[in-house]
Amino acid sequence: MMRNRFVKTAIVALLIAVFVTIRIWKTGETCLWFDEVFSVHAASQPWNSILSFIALDLIHPPLFYLILKAWIAIGGDGILWLRSLPIAFSTLAILPLFLLLDELKQDFKIKALMLYMLIVSGSVLKYSLEVRMYSLMLCLSLFSIWLFVRQLERRTSILPLIAVNLLLVYTHYFGWFVVASEVVAMFVFYRTNRNKIFIMAAVTAVAFMPWIVAVWTAAGAGSGLSQNIGWMSR
User: Phi-psi bin for 58: left (phi > 0), alpha (psi -120 to 50), beta?
Assistant: First the structure.
């Protein structure tokens, strides 16, 4: 029994080591591209004006930029340090993935397979190296799904799920798809405990309203989407 547990732990440790090594290998050999440069530029704004600056961009909520600003204050704006932030979030995402699989009562083989799929996924690798909000969104999405399943199975407090979903929608607008999928899943597959999930969605929506107002105000002041998507042909 002990030997079997040791082998499983060693396999997981090896896969995680490969996961991290692939991400840090030659990380500093490519320069920042335009969107990453914008992330750093946004994070360089003063605290008293950073939110209004981000609102003018229209297309992303502010959480990642705020975290990046604090990250730069700690370690500077060197490319290795900058890219270590998304790498850290993508690595942290392994934790809620395993917690979710435990909640779904999946065995070790499934856990190893899921971790392997994270390692070989080109899109996961690409976006875990960019100084953008995508690895944070992945991490928070997995935490949200785990807490959702945990709440349904164990009738735990809804507060952690509300907190994570607030962080998620303030990270990326697509976080709302995760919130919506949880409401739909509750409605379709479960007949009890629906009130808590509806309360979660309602609280998340109300708490997001200040940012909606900020973006609406920025758009009314003349900021438009053409600055971000105008380069695309119809």
Answer: left
Per-position b or e across 155-176, b if 16+ CB within 10 A of its CB: eeebeebbbbbbbbbbbbeebb
Alpha-carbon span 102 to 108, nearest angstrom: 9
What's at 176, amino acid-wise? W
Which single residue is written with the structure tokens 């003018």? 56
| Ramachandran angles phi, psi of 90, nearest 5° | -65, -35
Considering only residues 23 and 138, tell me which one the structure prediction assigns the higher pLDDT.
Answer: 138
pLDDT at 227: 57
Rounded to whole angstroms, the Cα distance separating 110 from 216 reads: 45
Contact 90, 128 (CB under 8 A): yes
Contacts of 73 (CB under 8 A, 6+ apart): none
The model's pTM:
0.90
Phi then psi dihedrals of residue 190, to 5 deg: -130, 140
- C-alpha 219/C-alpha 224 separation (Å) is 6
Q: Is residue 54 within 8 Å of residue 156, measured between CB atoms? A: no
